[in-house]
């Protein structure tokens, strides 16, 4: 089996790897942020419970850490989308109801 020559990978592979590497801290941040919030804040803003968001963001963080390419690409993209949904939709509302700055 010939060694994989990294210099000749198509551009889309490099773009996907960069997105994947950038997605790892995003997934970890979403999980840590969800873990540090009060449970009542999630139900107060009419979102899923804290436990549900911990499960979603935790699973997303694990997938982002473990799955890189091949058939796992679609899985880590879905995990990144789940983390981004938390950060863009849930986090601002939870933050507002608690009066927190971060």
From TrEMBL:
Domain of life (superkingdom): Bacteria
Keywords in alphabetical order: Membrane, Transmembrane, Transmembrane helix
The protein's name in its UniProt record: DUF2516 family protein
InterPro entries xref list: DUF2516
Membrane spanning stretches: 12-36, 48-67, 73-90
Source organism of this protein record: Saccharopolyspora rosea
């Amino acid at each position: 089996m010939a060694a994989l020559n990294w210099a000749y990978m198509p551009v889309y592979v490099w773009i996907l790897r960069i997105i994947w590497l950038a997605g790892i801290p995003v997934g970890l941040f979403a999980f840590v942020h969800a873990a540090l919030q009060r449970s009542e804040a999630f139900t107060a803003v009419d979102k899923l419970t804290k436990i549900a968001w911990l499960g979603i963001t935790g699973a997303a963080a694990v997938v982002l850490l473990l799955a890189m390419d091949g058939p796992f690409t679609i899985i880590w993209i879905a995990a990144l989308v789940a983390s981004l949904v938390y950060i863009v939709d849930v986090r601002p509302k939870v933050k507002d109801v608690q009066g927190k700055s971060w």
